From TrEMBL, chain A:
Residues covered by the ABC transporter domain: 4-234
Any single GO CC term annotated in Swiss-Prot or TrEMBL for this entry: ATP-binding cassette (ABC) transporter complex
Gene Ontology molecular function terms on file: ATP binding; ATP hydrolysis activity; transmembrane transporter activity
Gene3D superfamilies the record matches: 2.40.50.100, P-loop containing nucleotide triphosphate hydrolases
The organism of origin for this protein: freshwater metagenome
The keyword ATP-binding is assigned to this record: yes
Keywords, in A-Z order: ATP-binding, Nucleotide-binding, Transport
InterPro entries assigned: AAA+_ATPase, ABC_SmlMolc_Importer, ABC_transporter-like_ATP-bd, ABC_transporter-like_CS, Mo/tungstate-bd_C_term_dom, P-loop_NTPase, Transp-assoc_OB_typ2
Descriptive protein name: Unannotated protein
A Pfam family hit: TOBE_2
TrEMBL record, chain B:
PANTHER family membership: INNER MEMBRANE ABC TRANSPORTER PERMEASE PROTEIN YDCU-RELATED, INNER MEMBRANE ABC TRANSPORTER PERMEASE PROTEIN YDCU-RELATED-RELATED
GO biological processes: transmembrane transport
Protein name (Swiss-Prot/TrEMBL): Unannotated protein
Cross-referenced CDD domains: TM_PBP2
Membership in a protein family: Belongs to the binding-protein-dependent transport system permease family. CysTW subfamily.
Membrane topology type: Multi-pass membrane protein
Top-level taxonomy: unclassified sequences, metagenomes, ecological metagenomes
Cellular component, GO annotation: plasma membrane
Native organism: freshwater metagenome
Domain ABC transmembrane type-1: 62-276
Compartmental location: Cell membrane
UniProtKB/TrEMBL annotation, chain C:
Entry GO CC: plasma membrane
PROSITE patterns per UniProt: ABC_TM1
The species this protein was found in: freshwater metagenome
Positions of transmembrane segments: 35-57, 96-115, 127-148, 154-172, 216-242, 262-280
SUPFAM superfamilies assigned to the protein according to its UniProt record, in alphabetical order: MetI-like
Membrane topology per record: Multi-pass membrane protein
Family annotation (Gene3D superfamilies): MetI-like
Keywords: Cell inner membrane, Cell membrane, Membrane, Transmembrane, Transmembrane helix, Transport
Protein name in the entry: Unannotated protein
């Protein structure tokens, strides 16, 4: 268990900037996901933390001690890679044992730790198999066991689930979380899959272009995105025209709500509204028309259109949606329970009105 | 099984038959005749031809050939492997790797007459290098570095052995993943331990297989040694003598017996090589 | 401790110093050793070629060569003499025809086989790949004894012609020809192409001729170039069966005119190397690898 700090990290590869003044502070025992589109610098940040890459500037500290100059082998971390990275000439058991041998633990201790690792990762049936005899999910469990066997101060996971198929991915995701809570290791998990990040993390750091846009708990991230990038990257949003009133009030559709930025009164802007925050009213003279519906089980997603406007996505409970077949006309409004949280300014520009 | 379930196999046999007949007639038939004759010298079953083929001057021939092929395979194997590892670790001149790839594909084919000529011009009595070394007061011939000496032949053979080893090892060396090294480093392992417990066990089968291939390659080389030293006591040259002088009966049986031993040797080497390579494949495929 | 470490410990970002420092570290003694090793290997491969070129094109005997005379007396006269020798000319013709016949025979046998196998019986692929490796196990120096023991006695007229070499050369070109064709077929997903064309009503012959063959041109070219290189370099079999091909005639010719012989050998080698190098590189660009090992 350890706190981790990366402060003011910058890194360029040639002329392309991978990280710029990147700062993140992670609490002891916390699981933080670094989330972002490919090329946003999340993997570079992880590799700098691991010591596999040297930062151009900034510092990395664990438990308050600067480790920026330490090579990876002295950091006492554990890491899981996207491509499993198991040593192909060793069985699962030998792979897990490798780090313990490096630590010069004696045979009996090694054996008991390895046995425990095999138990908690449920690999009993595969302990003596070679990597090529195992499925992707099994291999990644071995890699996980190998990474935590040495009781690392920090566990690093670099897109550990990307190479797996959907079902395995979900199971293993929950298993990683269960193990992490069980052993309480501070963990940094890099992924480009927002569902993964939101489901597993204590806090999620959303990154783009080498910067940390927002670091917050999943719920806060979803409900109070700090800026337009986070809003549109996490979940689905509609872009609705809005008018700035005094201070931070905005007029959106039928309601006045609090935005996270203030606009000059009278200025036109665009705000992001989640599909579940829009309600429909049946109205034969309403300006909106139901164009299509997709049934998603408990919810139904409707696409509603109006000439001259961007189509809107509206999520209704499926029971409610039955009243809105394709072709039906309707009026849209913001739901009453929407307060300040879900609406943010995208760009307070009059020119965006047409879009 | 596909679009035309019944016509498929018939068409396949239509093209399979001429192929099989061709291989059977020109490869298997002569080979089996030789093997049969080797165990039936003078028309009756017996092993004296096979015994004679491994005694006296022929024994010397086998020993010389195996020593020469083994030495050039080992040295060529080590240098070729080091070359592959070095090239993988050096990223800097971007042209280095494609150039070496192409060059090796070409040079591994360059055995034969031209290569022999090149080395006559280099380490022959009137050779370029011989002359330069003489300028330093070194007589290369004293060290066996002449086209007819043992080490001279090794030096010549290395010219196709090194590139061949490079070609054979490059896929295995490329199969070493960067993340293995990183995983080892994060676990606290030294570079030395990583090499000892991962790289060497991984490369060993491929490298051994490569050395066996080089051995076979050198053992069957004929043109180079024929041009450089036609009277040398090596198996391919002895086969030539027996073949061209097959007036005396019984000599023919001896030739067959020698070829039988050669085939056994090659077959054993190539089977071992295939097994070793299969092992590497299953490892690196994952 | 390096400057960067100190700076980092104080929380100072040293962005320019950091990169300079990293660049300095990349020139370590290890990389000097590596470069030196590559340099030595390169020298080993280049010196014999230079020595051969000197012998072939510089009309100064080694005994009289001094550093001052290094650039005297260079000429191609030896090469022209060799190239106008009637023996060499006719041997070249023979070898070129051997190349053409060997390629034709090989493709006639293996091209339909590889395609039909891939399209209809993919399960036969490993079998074929093993069978086509057989010629490897029986190299020329071994097979020649068998051929002498069988064909020479049974059908003496067959071995009388220089072109009796064709089937055997085709045989030794089989391992890499089959592999090149198979790799080509895999790369273009021949089975899917075949099925797509079938659904449009094309016949097997049409598919092979109009769809598959045009798409594996690179593989066919590679196989042909390798066959050509093999035939132009094969010495043992031809020599032991007393045939006159370019390699055997070169050895004969060199006995009377060492300089011309070497010049000729060098030129043949350079041309072969260039052709092979081109093929290898063009294939690499298409993402195909060539297996040239083990002839």
């Amino acid at each position: 268990m350890a706190t981790v700090e990366m402060v003011g990290i910058s890194k360029s590869f040639g002329s392309s900037v991978a990280l710029e003044d990147f700062t993140v502070r992670i609490r002891s025992g916390e699981l933080v996901c670094l989330l972002g589109p490919s090329g946003c610098g999340k993997t570079t940040a992880l590799r700098i933390l691991a010591g596999l890459e040297k930062a151009d500037g900034g510092r990395v500290a664990v438990e308050g001690l600067d480790i920026s100059g330490d090579p990876p082998e002295r950091r006492r971390f554990g890491m899981v890679f996207q491509d499993y990275s198991l040593f192909p000439n060793m069985t699962a058991r030998q792979n897990i044992e490798f780090g313990l041998k490096v630590q010069k633990k004696d045979a009996a201790v090694r054996r008991s730790i390895v046995d425990r690792m095999i138990d908690i990762t449920r690999l009993q049936a595969h302990a003596d198999k070679y990597p090529h005899q195992m499925s992707g999910g099994q291999r990644q469990r071995v890699a996980l066991a190998r990474a935590i066997a040495t009781a690392p101060r920090v566990l690093l996971l670099d897109e550990p689930l990307s190479a797996l198929d959907a079902q395995v991915r979900e199971t293993l995701r929950d298993e990683i979380r269960r193990l992490q809570l069980e052993i309480g290791v501070t963990t940094v998990f890099v992924t480009h899959d927002q569902h993964e990040a939101l489901a597993i993390a204590d806090r999620v750091g959303v990154m783009s272009n080498g910067r940390l846009e927002q670091l917050a708990a999943p719920r806060e991230l979803y409900e109070r995105p700090a800026n337009s990038f986070v809003a549109s990257f996490i979940g689905t949003v509609n872009q609705l025209p809005a008018r700035a009133l005094q201070s931070d009030r905005w007029q959106v559709l039928n309601r006045t709500v609090v935005g996270n930025e203030a606009g000059t009164a009278g200025v036109e802007g665009v705000v992001a509204v989640r599909p579940e925050h829009i309600a429909l009213d049946r109205s034969d003279t309403g300006p909106w028309t139901i164009e299509s519906t997709s049934f998603l089980g408990p919810m139904t997603r409707l696409v509603v259109t109006q000439p001259g406007h961007q189509p809107l996505l509206v999520d209704l409970a499926s029971v409610e949606a039955a009243a809105f077949p394709v072709g039906r006309r309707a009026q849209v409004r913001l739901r009453d329970d929407v307060g300040q949280v879900t609406v943010i300014t995208l760009a307070p520009l009059a020119s965006r009105k047409s879009s | 099984m596909r679009a035309s379930p019944r016509r498929g196999p018939r068409k396949a046999s239509l093209v399979l038959v001429p192929f099989a007949a061709f291989v059977g007639l020109f490869l298997l038939y002569p080979t089996l005749v030789v093997l049969y004759k080797a165990v039936t010298p003078g028309g009756a079953l017996g092993f004296d031809a096979l015994e004679r083929a491994l005694s006296g001057t022929y024994r010397t021939g086998f020993i010389n050939s195996i020593t020469l092929s083994g030495t050039s395979a080992l040295i060529g194997g080590v240098i070729g492997l080091l070359l592959a590892l070095t090239v993988k670790s050096l990223r800097r001149p971007a042209w280095l790797r494609p150039t070496l790839d192409s060059w090796s594909a070409v040079a591994s084919q360059l055995g034969g007459v031209a290569l022999a000529f090149a080395f006559i011009a280099t380490i022959g009595a009137q050779g370029f290098l011989t002359k330069i070394l003489k300028g330093f007061g070194i007589n290369a011939g004293d060290y066996g570095i002449s086209p007819t000496g043992f080490w001279g032949l090794v030096v010549v053979y290395l010219y196709f052995q090194i590139p061949l080893m490079f070609l054979v090892m490059m896929p295995a060396v490329n199969g070493l993943r960067e993340t293995w090294r990183e995983a080892a480093a994060i676990t606290g392992s030294s570079a030395f331990r990583y090499w000892r417990s991962v790289v060497i066990p991984l490369l060993a089968p491929a490298a051994l297989g490569g050395v066996l291939l080089l051995f076979v390659n050198a053992f069957t080389a004929y043109a180079t040694v024929y041009v450089l030293n036609p009277s040398g006591a090596l198996v391919p040259l002895q086969i030539r003598f027996l073949l061209q002088g097959n007036v005396i009966t019984g000599e023919e049986d001896l030739g067959n017996a020698i070829v039988a031993w050669v085939i056994v040797l090659l077959l054993a080497s190539l089977i071992a090589m295939t097994l070793l390579q299969r092992r590497t494949l299953t490892w690196t495929r994952s | 401790m390096t400057i960067e470490d100190v700076a980092a410990r104080r929380g100072v970002a040293l962005s320019t110093g950091g990169t300079r420092h990293a660049r300095w570290r990349s020139v370590r003694p290890a990389s000097v050793v590596k470069s030196a090793f590559i340099g030595m290997v390169a020298l080993y491969f280049i010196v014999p070629m230079l020595a051969m070129a000197r012998f072939a094109f510089q009309n100064v005997p080694m005994a009289l060569l001094t550093p001052e005379k290094l650039f005297d007396g260079w000429s191609f006269s030896g090469l022209w003499t060799a190239l106008s020798d009637p023996g060499i000319i006719s041997a070249t013709k023979t070898s070129v025809l051997l190349v053409a016949f060997a390629i034709a025979l090989n493709l006639a046998l293996l091209l339909p086989l590889a395609i039909i196998t891939e399209v209809h019986n993919p399960r036969l692929r490993p079998v074929l790949s093993a069978v086509t490796l057989l010629p490897w196990v029986i190299p020329p120096i071994a097979l020649v004894v068998g051929v002498a023991a069988t064909f020479r006695a049974a059908v003496p007229w067959f071995l009388a012609s220089d072109f009796s070499l064709v089937p055997f050369y085709a045989l030794w070109a089989m391992p890499f020809t089959y592999r090149a064709l198979d790799a080509g077929l895999q790369a273009i997903n021949a089975r899917t192409l075949y099925e797509a064309a079938r659904t449009m009503g094309a016949s097997l012959t049409t598919i092979i001729v109009r769809v598959i063959i045009p798409n594996i041109g690179a593989a066919i070219a590679a196989a042909s170039a390798l066959t050509a290189a093999m035939v132009l370099g094969e010495f043992a079999f031809a020599s032991l069966l007393l045939k006159t091909t370019l390699p055997t005639e070169m050895v004969n010719y060199q006995r009377g005119d060492p300089r011309g012989g070497l010049a000729l050998a060098l030129i043949v080698m350079i041309l072969t190397a260039l052709a092979l190098g081109l093929v290898v590189r063009s294939l690499r660009r298409r993402g195909l690898t060539v297996q040239t090992a083990g002839i």
